[in-house]
């Protein structure tokens, strides 16, 4: 049986056609009826369809020429690398997909390294050969330079037209090794993904490494120690298809009916309760969140609903971490950790779409290491956690290794942008030769430079041609201060942020100007201020929305008009002095600062 199984995934840079190629696989193998076929079928979330990007890994089983082909479609964006790494641990081979019009990109290389670490068989494929600007010769040379393979080993296809798609599946059958024969060993299955169903509880996606699982078996989750009975078992096609068992080497799902979300974890090992394995599978390296933001429900009553929503989303996105947090201004909420700004944005959108909860997100920050004067070392994930300056010996911030790929003509622009963001140049590699050379620039940069608008600026200065990949390097000393924002002389905790001292004025100025444009005008003048330790470094004033109190006058002396205006002026002063000058900050003002 194992000889007829092939487990593989598709890895690529974002927008290189992974999901479109997967559609052609489903059509060619007859896995999905033509009447049910639609573009990006494996991107099952509404958000994925709207944005045209893959957010979640998605397994599917196909039958082709007597073989069982288990495919896992993966995301391409750097923020979802953890999804890719989990997919790679469940397969024996990977299709490295490269856009024939764009060539090798930064995330192509990043995902390739992940596949090589797992010792997978790599099948290089050039996609989009039907486009008039496809340059097969040039991109093939880049792939040969990258992989050290032969030219004839590189396959070409068009995911849009279906050209040569059958040759890729043939290559998977011929080159990807079948799973190891471990049917007689004690049962072990690796949980590589999970989701929550309101009726059946947690559905775990598993790769069978040893033995087999059958419907009705009593199972044990080795890391949590929880036991349960298998209610349903089967494979993805891509909808749930039920079977009587999952044998060694197969990929499928297990429904145990457990509804307590902490009992099933991605990376855990499932074994049989009667004849348990003594050694769990290694699982996955614990992912380190890079960007932190506070999430608070707009309505205080939604706190428990928000907790439950986040626990359910954590099942399908195990890269998320969160812990309870309390704010004087915003009440009870959570400090959440993400892999990047897109990851944060997608999570925030899913909270609203899937659970209908309106939230306020604080300004994102990175995790700083702070050494206090008493020698204690703490991790600061929020501006409110930063101790007073007199209690701080030093602050360390995370630095990343950054790979940037861009055409030679834009190298100067890229270097200028990175130097503005405190980047340290390491070296340059050229991926292709000729008149339209492309270079890969290696830098080290502080993560704080990357999490706001760096990617957008990079695309702007390179006319959209550049690509970016980054990975954690180490922690280094930094001169960081807390920037407070005050509106109508009231400090707004959610808008506080940690910034470099030498850029505090520039950032503070941007924030107050942004707030001036987005805050609604009131019946009184609003002072908007950026402060460091009580010292104002930038300020704006939003003029009062003046009601026309003289509209009812139809004649008489001008003193009547002055009298009404003076009365209005005194009323505005009274509002401020009585504390009625508080300003409610709309969500769009928070968003404007997040995207500053």
Structure, explained:
- The chain is an alpha+beta fold.
- The chain has five domains: 2-175, 3-Layer(aba) Sandwich (Rossmann fold); 188-272, Beta Barrel (Elongation Factor Tu (Ef-tu), domain 3); 291-361, Alpha-Beta Plaits; 392-478, 2-Layer Sandwich (Alpha-Beta Plaits), CATH 3.30.70; 482-594, 2-Layer Sandwich (Alpha-Beta Plaits).
- Helices cover 26% and strands 33% of the residues.
- Strands 11-10-16-7-8-15-12-13 form an eight-stranded antiparallel β-sheet, covered by helices on one side.
- Helix 7 (303-316) crosses helix 8.
- The termini are far apart.
Descriptive keywords:
14 helices; 596 residues; 6-stranded mixed β-sheet; 31 strands; 8-stranded antiparallel β-sheet; 5 domains; Rossmann fold; alpha+beta; Alpha-Beta Plaits; Elongation Factor Tu (Ef-tu), domain 3
Short précis:
The chain is an alpha+beta fold. The protein has five domains: 2-175, P-loop containing nucleotide triphosphate hydrolases (Rossmann fold, 3-Layer(aba) Sandwich), CATH 3.40.50.300; 188-272, Translation factors (Elongation Factor Tu (Ef-tu), domain 3, Beta Barrel); 291-361, Alpha-Beta Plaits (2-Layer Sandwich), CATH 3.30.70; 392-478, Alpha-Beta Plaits (2-Layer Sandwich), CATH 3.30.70.240; 482-594, Alpha-Beta Plaits. Helix content is 26%, strand content 33%.
